[in-house]
């Protein structure tokens, strides 16, 4: 599928846009190279949210990241939700559009969470069909993000990276590689995070996510929760370095959605990501 | 449980996330989790793994409701609000992924929620907050410059129809809900005497990026309601006079000009046309 980018996304650090940071962003010089928004927060028709976005888009490339399309739903994507996403994409012509390897809607209700998929032949077909339909309607390629998860099913027929790589091959979508999610799921399920990274073709990766997570006690073990509420931890920075060495420099987002910090603290996280990115000489493979 | 198909799995999981206790269906779902570590703790561990998703869903949706209904939360207190929100989420999960549309039924729900029965104005406050949120995100509208009406011949003025700004909602209540809402935007509240209070006839709309809540005089509210139904000035004024007469409200013929002038000043009218 051709990629109708009206903007190109630099292989530098961006951050998730929060309305409370708007004045700081507009009034200061920043090394933050681009912004990402959650599509569903901008599905109103007007008002200050869109005013912010219009101003932001004058100076920065944008990534629209959906959390509610539910590409894993057995009964297809919701027409209205997809139409709302298309309206937003047409309005802002973002450099990147992404969604998740998950589901959130069953029939009538939307559960506002990124729920785990069974990794089976049946769900692979559903997922690929739903992505293909979405890409046809939007007229462009989307990226699919690997989720954090807290259980695995005992009847999975694929590992998660096998499933992710297959949907990219079969649908022509790209991959949004969330390094924090790889780490969280690897720790929760006991697989090797680096093997997961190794399984992904560098050329398929269009974006990287980094975020903080929390650790909860579970009996005598620990479970890691992807809550986007703190700084990126050292182990995830280390896995990020490993990822960049494997796949080259890619646009990298700092996600911080809960207990949102002051603008300067978010910028510091982006600066760290930029310092890693700038040590990678060239992008190994241009994302196509 | 045997391997379910995708529809069965999603149905089982949806039920397991919304059910008020960990029932048989939840146990069926948990029996599908791949065991990690010691088999002896497998069941306890599965419960904790499911609980993470149950908490995430409930926490995110009740937090969204608290953000949409801050005044209701303040009026009933945090614990009561949390209980109401959990029950509401279970009964009316969101139908759309964009949560700025969530909670349309919350007004009706909170009005009948037994622990809040002694607060009869609560449903109307919730409706006000819902309208406020919708106005906040509504499409931007042009504002009609009253000078444009100068082009209309005086004898044709009665035939003029207006389009109101897209964000406008009209809400009336026997309770002083605008005053209650305003007091609860402040750190400290003054006592409002409900036995000696003004009813609310509210126009809720966005001016620029800010939502305005204006309590209109009753005749003016009625006139605006008629105009918003796409009636001509002549029809709307006649209906207003009839209603005023039926309800024994005073209304002088000469007041129309002042009322229209006031509505223009609120920037509530977006466009006009004649004879359409």
Q: Any key phrases for this structure?
A:
heterodimer, A: about 290 residues, alpha/beta, TIM Barrel, 9 helices, 12 strands, about 40% helix, B: about 280 residues, 2 domains, elongated
Strand-helix topology:
The complex is a heterodimer of chains A (288) and B (276).
Chain A: E1 13-16, H1 22-27, E2 35-38, H2 48-59, E3 62-65, H3 79-92, E4 96-100, E5 103-106, E6 109-115, H4 121-138, E7 143-145, H5 160-171, E8 174-178, H6 179-189, H7 193-199, E9 205-211, E10 214-218, E11 221-225, H8 234-247, E12 252-255, H9 263-279
Parallel strand pairs in A: 1-2, 1-12, 2-3, 3-4, 4-7, 7-8, 8-9, 9-12
Antiparallel strand pairs in A: 5-6, 10-11
Chain B: H1 6-18, H2 24-30, H3 42-68, H4 70-76, H5 78-91, H6 106-111, H7 122-137, E1 160-164, E2 169-173, H8 177-183, E3 200-207, E4 210-215, H9 218-228, H10 233-246, H11 255-265, E5 269-274
Antiparallel strand pairs in B: 1-5, 2-3, 3-4
Helix pairs in contact in B: 1-2, 3-5, 4-5, 4-7, 9-10
Number of H- or I-type helical stretches of chain A:
9
The count of DSSP E runs of length 2 or more, i.e. the number of strands of chain A, is 12
CATH fold name of the largest domain in chain B: Outer Surface Protein A, domain 3
Number of individual domains of chain B: 2
In which order are the strands of the major sheet of chain A placed?
1-2-3-4-7-8-9-12
CATH architecture of chain A: Alpha-Beta Barrel
Q: How does the helix and strand content of chain A classify structurally?
A: alpha/beta
Question: So, the CATH homologous superfamily of chain A?
Answer: Divalent-metal-dependent TIM barrel enzymes
The shape of chain B is elongated
Question: Can you put this structure into words, describing what you see?
Answer:
The complex is a heterodimer of chains A (288) and B (276). Chain A is an alpha/beta fold. Chain A has a single domain, classed as TIM Barrel (Alpha-Beta Barrel), CATH 3.20.20. Chain A has helices at 22-27, 48-59, 79-92, 121-138, 160-171, 179-189, 193-199, 234-247, 263-279; strands at residues 13-16, 35-38, 62-65, 96-100, 103-106, 109-115, 143-145, 174-178, 205-211, 214-218, 221-225, 252-255. In chain A, α4 (121-138) packs across α5 and α7 runs parallel beside α8. Chain B has helices spanning 6-18, 24-30, 42-68, 70-76, 78-91, 106-111, 122-137, 177-183, 218-228, 233-246, 255-265, and strands spanning 160-164, 169-173, 200-207, 210-215, 269-274. Chain B has a 3-stranded antiparallel beta sheet with strand order 2-3-4, with helices on both faces. Chain B has a two-stranded antiparallel sheet with strand order 1-5. The relative contact order of chain B is 0.09. Chain B folds into 2 domains: 1-103, no CATH class; 140-276, Alpha-Beta Complex (Outer Surface Protein A, domain 3). By secondary structure, chain B is mainly alpha-helical. Chains A and B meet through α2, α3, β5, β6 and α4 of A and α1 and α3 of B.
């Amino acid at each position: 599928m051709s990629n109708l980018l009206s903007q190109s996304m630099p292989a530098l650090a961006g951050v998730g846009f929060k309305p409370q940071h708007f004045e700081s962003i507009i009034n200061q010089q920043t090394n933050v190279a681009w912004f990402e928004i959650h599509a569903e927060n901008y599905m109103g028709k007007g008002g200050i949210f869109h005013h912010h976005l219009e101003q932001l888009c004058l100076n920065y490339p944008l990534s629209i990241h959906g959390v509610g399309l539910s590409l894993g739903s057995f009964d297809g994507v919701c027409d209205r939700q997809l139409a709302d996403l298309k309206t937003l994409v047409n309005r802002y012509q973002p450099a990147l559009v992404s969604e998740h390897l998950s589901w959130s809607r069953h029939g009538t209700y939307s559960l506002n969470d990124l729920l785990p998929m069974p990794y089976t032949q049946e769900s692979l077909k559903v997922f690929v069909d739903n992505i293909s339909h979405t890409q046809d309607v939007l007229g462009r390629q989307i990226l699919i993000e690997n989720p954090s998860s807290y259980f695995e099913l005992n009847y999975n027929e694929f590992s998660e990276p096998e499933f992710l790589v297959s949907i990219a091959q079969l649908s022509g979508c790209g991959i949004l590689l969330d390094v924090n999610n790889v780490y969280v799921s690897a720790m929760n399920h006991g697989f090797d995070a680096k093997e997961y990274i190794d399984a992904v073709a560098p050329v398929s990766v269009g974006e990287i996510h980094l975020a903080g997570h929390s650790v909860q006690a579970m009996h005598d073990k620990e479970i890691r929760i992807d809550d986007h509420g703190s700084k990126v931890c050292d182990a995830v920075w280390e896995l990020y370095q490993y990822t960049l060495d494997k796949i080259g420099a890619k646009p990298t987002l700092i996600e911080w959605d809960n207990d949102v910090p002051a603008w300067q603290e978010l910028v510091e996280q982006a600066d760290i990501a930029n310092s890693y990115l700038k040590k990678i000489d060239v992008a190994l493979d241009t994302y196509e | 449980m045997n391997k379910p198909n995708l529809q069965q799995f999603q149905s089982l999981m949806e039920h397991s996330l919304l059910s008020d206790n960990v029932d048989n269906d939840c146990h069926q779902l948990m029996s599908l989790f791949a065991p990690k570590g010691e088999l002896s703790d497998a069941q306890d561990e599965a419960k904790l793994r499911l609980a993470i998703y149950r908490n995430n869903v409930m926490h995110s949706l009740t937090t969204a409701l608290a953000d949409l209904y801050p005044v209701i939360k303040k009026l009933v207190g945090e614990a009561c609000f949390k209980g109401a929100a959990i029950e509401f989420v279970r009964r009316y999960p969101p139908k759309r992924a964009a949560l700025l549309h969530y909670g349309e039924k919350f007004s009706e729900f909170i009005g009948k929620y037994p622990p809040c029965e002694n607060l009869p104005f609560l449903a109307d406050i919730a409706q006000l907050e819902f309208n406020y949120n919708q106005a906040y995100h509504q499409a931007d509208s042009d504002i009609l410059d009253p000078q444009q009406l100068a082009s209309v011949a005086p004898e044709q003025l009665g035939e003029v129809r207006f389009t109101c700004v897209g964000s406008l909602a009209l809400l009336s209540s026997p309770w002083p809900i605008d005053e209650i809402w305003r007091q609860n935007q402040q750190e400290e509240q003054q006592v409002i005497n409900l036995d000696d209070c003004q009813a609310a006839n509210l126009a809720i709309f966005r001016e620029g990026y800010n939502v305005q809540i204006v309590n209109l005089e009753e005749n003016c509210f009625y006139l605006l309601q008629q105009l918003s139904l796409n009636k001509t000035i002549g029809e709307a004024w006649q209906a207003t006079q009839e209603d005023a007469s039926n309800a024994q409200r005073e209304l002088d013929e000469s007041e129309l000009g002042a009322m229209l002038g006031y509505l223009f000043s609120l920037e509530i009218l977006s466009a006009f046309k004649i004879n359409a």
